Each structure stands twice: as structure tokens, then as C-alpha cells.
Amino acid sequence: MDAEVKQSKGRKITSRLAYSFGAFGHDAFYATLSTYFIMFVTSHLFDKSSGAQGTKMIAYITMIIAVLRFVELAIDPLIGNAIDNTNSRWGHFKPWIVIGGTIGSVVLALLFTSLGGLNTSNPILYLIVFAILYITMDIFYSFKDVGFWSMIPAISFDSAEREKTATYARVGSNIGQNIVGVVVMPIVLMFSTKANSGQGDNRGWMAFGIIIAAVALISAFAVAIGTKENDSELRKNTEKTTFKEVFKVLARNDQLMWLSLTYGIYTAGMAITNSLELYYFTYILGDASKFTLLGSLNAIIGVFAVLAFPPLAKKFSRRKVFFLAISVMVIALAMFAFAGQSLPMILTAAVLFYIPQPLIFLVVLMVLSDSVEYGQLKFGHRDESLTLSVRPLLDKLGGAISNGVVGLTAVWAGMTAGATAGDVTSHGQAIFKLMMLGVPAVMILTGAFTFFKKVKLDEKMHAQIVDELEKTWSKHLETDETPAEIETNSEVTIYHSPVAGKLISLDEVADKTFASGSMGKGFAIQPTDGRVLAPFDGEVVATFPTRHAIGLRSDQGILTLIHIGIGTVNMRGTGFVQYVEEGDHVKQGEELIEFWQPAIKKAGLDDTVMVVITNKEMPEFEYLKDMGNLVQDNENVLKLSNTELPD
User: Fold this and answer.
1) Annotated catalytic residue within 44, 462, 548, 563
2) 563 counts as catalytic
């Protein structure tokens, strides 16, 4: 058993590290695309000699990017649906992560070139080819993005485990996002033939694009090789969603929609400021090389911000973390407005603006992940990738708005090809600061207000939802074995007590779902011992990440759910040890779960064990013990007929 536990821990660590490295490459790619590619277009794709024609082409390219990203927004939910409906030997997600990572990386490298000089020799053909390449890259990036982040709810149903996995990923993505800011100018200048006042040239930017594309490609294969998608009966509660139903599924999940509005407004404002920071260093401070300092600080401090999320969320709740983070961002924007050319003040404001971003991302990602179960309980559908496709969709919305605003701001402020800090007028600086600081502040505050008023899905609500889903587990099992197909010498099943304690009637328990009989017929036990044993020979058909319940099917086809305690889902597995896995065949009397009663009592919860038979066609019951009696584990308590099971 110890060897199996060590092996399981080893697989978890390998999976988390691979997922974290995948996030590193993924966000390095995204940061390059959303922040630095537009800098290449506005400042380096054309030189000073292109004049008005170059400025016009920059405006056209900027508009093409914005329009294509808006068009592609409508495709993202369909991409999520396509991934949900993908079944392969490698799972739902890995094929799309590899395919999307490969095609996206190749095209990104091409976009950091002039396409063989077409930008000046044949501008119209360049714009056509550029548009085709960009939409291709964006679509396949979306397949990878949706597939990558959709793996989180497939890894676990437990909010705490999701927070841990997402935190590992966010550490990787934080480093990936910020390492780009650290290396961008050194790489550009290293490969440039002309320093160009510290801005480098198009050859240096091409080398930068190729390097980032290669890193993103390698990380995609690392995810495919190193991660594991866990299976579960609850994940099998999935119905195929047709093209027409895709947007209907998203729209009717009210918590998903309100969170989407919040994050859409917020991320657009945040992306505008982030994208214009390099412009600030280049055209206001007048020294683009100092941007490496900001990238280094963000990479280091950002890791600590990410690691702080689980303890902060546990102590203060996700909602409080969200509003604290928003407050810090607004203060940072105010500081930026008065920073001028003071490098210490610029760096302080920029770092303060960045620190809350991974915290807000994790809050949003957790609520989005939890909305999968919210929608499943409310509508009977489980649409993982379709639901999680909303976040990259909103990131793209923010990126589309940001790219459009940044391109126009660069043109309006005079920060285009060949310009230096000395060329930017005071009027241009005023326009730039309004777009970089004022507009984002309004958007971020609007998003926070929407979250405060409308988003109600928190940790407590999600725990209750998972508890309700666990109680409906047997409705989604396909019992394809019938008594006629099972070799048995008996027409009855003797059901042994799985727990020692006082036998009580099921209708006396404090949980209304069990007491009402809607779960099925059975009994309850007030335990005197913390061991749960198999009541018959059979198969483990459902396990839960909280380890407080288990589903079994006897060799004669009887389905049973053993549920430890009331409200114990909120303990998130603390105080419970599970000794079997889904798919294991167990013998009557074999230990399944061990629970620590003092932990349940300390949490202020009821430790009553509910035992129910959940077959749709209920077998005949004969209780062998009277209610109120003490029973030992393994003692006979029920006689169940096998003849009444469904044909």
C-alpha cells in the first residue's frame, strides 16, 4: 500500500510540474501575442522611410487584428464544444493541446517577419496573407488554450485540489508571462544589426518571435506526455451539445454569464495598461532597456503573489481576495499618473499593478471551474470545455479591445515607426496617459461592481452543489448487468453492516434528501468506529475527491451508496482515508474508507453514516435487525431479493 501511495504521489508531482511548464510556455506565447507583437507592428515592421504609407498600413493591420479577434470570439464556444465531444486514447484535451501548439507556434514565427518583404513590395497581398495567417494562428491557439485550462475540472471535483493545481499552473504562467518582458529587449538587441536608440530592428524581433514559438511548442508536448486526466462517474454525466445549443448552454448559466461580464470588462482594461507599459518605457521614460527591470521584478514578486492565493483564499475567502486585489490595482494606476520619468516610482506603480493580476485570474478561474458543477446540477448537462472556453474567449475580447486601443493610441500619440521619446509632444503624452491609465481605471472598477452585485458562487455554495451531485450519482450509472447474466446460486443478497454503531431509521437523519427516501431505501448508523467495510462482494463504481462517500455495485447488480456524515463535503477530504479506487473489485468485509470522528465533531458536523440502495427497480427488503439496536461491522442487517432487479 505504501508503494502505491508513493507511486500515486510521484504521478501527481510529475503531472503538476508538466502542467506548470505547459502554463509557462502557453503564457509566454500569449504575452508575446497580446503585448509585444503589436509593438513589433507599430514600431518595427515599417521604417521611417515608409512615412504616411507605413502609418496607414499600421492602422490597417491593427484593424484587421481587432476585427479577426472579434470574429474568432464567436468560434471559441464551438471549439470548447468540439473538445468536449472529442474521445481519443489520449483523452479530450491532449490532442488539441499538441495540434494547437504546433500550428500556432509555426504561424507566430511567420508573423514576426515581413513575409519576404510583401509589406512594402505588395501591401494588399501582405494584408490578405497576414489576415489568413493571423486567424489560423488564433483559432489553433484557442484549441490549445481551451484544452489546456479545461483540464482543471477534469483533474478533480474538489475546490481545494483545483486551487492547488491552478496555483502550480499559475506559478508557471506567471514566470512565462514575465520572463518574456525580461528577455524581449536583450534578445531583440542581441540579434539586431542596428541598435536604433535601444529599440533594435526587425531582424532582432524576428529572432525573438522564433524563440518564443519554440518554447511554446516544447511545453505543449510536455503537457501531453506528463499530465494525467482522471476519470470519474460524475464526469460521465455529459450529453452531446449540438451547434444550436452551444450558446443556449452558456447563456442560461447565470453565474457563468455574470462572471463573464465582470471578467470581460476587467481584462480589457487590464490588458490596455499592460500592453502600453513598454511604450511608456520607450516613449515617456526614453529607455526601453529598463523594461527588463520591470519584467524581472514581476517574475519574482508574481510567484509569491500566486503562492499566496491558497492561504489568502482560505483565510479571507475568494471574494475578499478579489476586492483587495482590485483596490491595489486602482492605487497603482493613480501612482502611475504621477510617476513621470522617475524610474523608482514607475517600477513601483507597475509592480503594484501586476501583483493582483494572478490573484484575480485564480479567483475567476476557480469560479468558472465551479460553474461547471453549478450548470450540471441546474440543467443536467456537464459541459467542461464549453464552460471553460469562456475564459480564453474573454481574454481574447480583452486582447482584441487592447490591440485596437494600443494601435490607435500609438498613431494618435505619434509613437510609430522611427519615433523616439523626443518626438512625442506634450499633447501626445496626455493622450497616451488617458488611454493607458484613465480608461482602464473606469473599466476595472465597473467590472468589480458587477462582481459585487451579481456573482454569488463561492466555496460554500460549490461544496453544497457537489454534495447534491454526489447524491444523484446512481442515476448516471449504466447497469448493463442483469440477474440473468450473472452466475449466482442465490436469489437473495445478504447485506452486512458497513459500520459499527447504533442502527437508526433513514427517515430520522437530519439530511432531508436521505430522510425523504428520494435517494433510495436503506438505513443509517450512528457510528462507534471509524471503519467503513464492504457490505458485499462487488465493484467500486464511484469514488469522490472528498472521500466521504463511496458507490458500490454487488456481483448480483445491487447498487448502494455509503455516505459518511452530513455536510462533510465541506471538510474537503480532511479526516478521511480511502483505501480503494474506482474499478476495484472488493470482497465483503474489506476496508474501504477510514474516517476520524473527532475531526468531524471538531468541524461541528453530524457523523451519521447513511446507507442506501439506489436501484431504479427497488429489490424486496427484509430488515434482519430492529432499529435502535447496536450492530457490529460485518453483522447481517438486510436481506435483499435479486429477482426484482431490472431485466
Assistant:
1) 563
2) yes
